[in-house]
């Protein structure tokens, strides 16, 4: 049986909460002032301004800014004499585009470090998780091996960021109280400290559940 490692698309499909996005920040710049239609699209909606011969780059910028002011997805601010800063309010994706009467009259640029900012971390942990997988020869279902890889990588992403699917990364705990006294202690239902750490996240528990289906030797023949 040929085992297949998970890729980033598989990881996101299985555990979408591993994507840690920061709000997007776009810079729109009116490069050239021409008479004609300028348009900025944001979140699938169009925000146009019709420039006339008397309009310079600042006037066109101001017209577009007024047009954009009515949408609820982003905060709009001026930048210099011919630029607009579009700052996403909720990290859901703006897909900003800008067009003018001629190509190059206006540009829209997503600023580095905004948007999907943990793609590099996901790639790193997908690679590291390969070393923690059981032998391929024992996993009789190829789909289980791929999902185990994704689950272990997702657990590592969440653990490294100290977060979980609900925004927290916490262990299993038991609580006992008697009158005014109380005792809280870590509780493990797994065989080893490493398993107990895996059990603190949803993908970690998925990995343990899949692993429990098989009996692994020290090495494959």
Describe the structure in your own words:
The strands form four sheets. Strands 5-6-2-8 form a four-stranded antiparallel beta sheet, covered by helices on one side. About 9% of the residues have low confidence. The chain is elongated and about 80 Å long. A hairpin with a 3-residue loop joins strand 5 and strand 6. Helix content is 29%, strand content 25%. The two termini are 14 Å apart. The protein is of the alpha+beta class. The protein folds into two domains: 97 residues, no CATH class; 95 residues, Immunoglobulin-like (Sandwich). Helix 3 crosses helix 4 and helix 4 runs antiparallel to helix 6. The chain is built from six helices and eleven strands.
Helices and strands, with pairings:
Blueprint: H1 8-14, E1 21-22, E2 25-30, E3 36-42, E4 45-51, H2 57-68, E5 74-79, E6 83-88, E7 97-99, E8 106-110, E9 115-116, H3 119-129, H4 142-160, E10 173-178, E11 181-186, H5 193-198, H6 202-211
Antiparallel strand pairs: 1-9, 2-6, 2-8, 3-4, 3-7, 5-6, 10-11
